[in-house]
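[job 4471] stage=fold_predict status=RUNNING
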Amino acid sequence: MQAHTERVLLVITGIAVIAFAVSFVLGVRLPAPRSGGASPDSIAAHDFLNRGRPPRVEVLNGAGRAGLARDATGRLRHSGFDVVFFGNARAQTDTSYVLDRTGRIETARAVGRALGITRVHTAVDTTLYLEATVVLGKDWPRADGQD
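[job 4471] inference complete, writing structure tokens
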């Protein structure tokens, strides 16, 4: 009788271990890539998704032309970034740039690549709860080609 009970417990334990292994493998599996291929920028955003969330970004219009921040927001969201705010900058600027807000400049560079902005600087500000700030200058073109 004791041998039978031990065998039953062994089988139940084996089933539990197999169920755990299967659930672990299914839980770690990466999501399928979107159709149309992945750009390097969406891959950078996807790297953050694998850590639990996409990079949070704010977009500020420093050019004084209506609609720029909205256009940039659409491009960034299409690339997989989480734009948590867009609006006007406090002052106008001629040149667009991206600010790294966490000390992880590679994230800010990925944001810049998604928008065609090469100027990236570090200005850590942990009170903002975001990874990057984009400031669009007069040099940044609109998505629809209008000025």
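[job 4471] summary: The first strand starts at residue 56 and ends at 61.
[job 4471] exit 0
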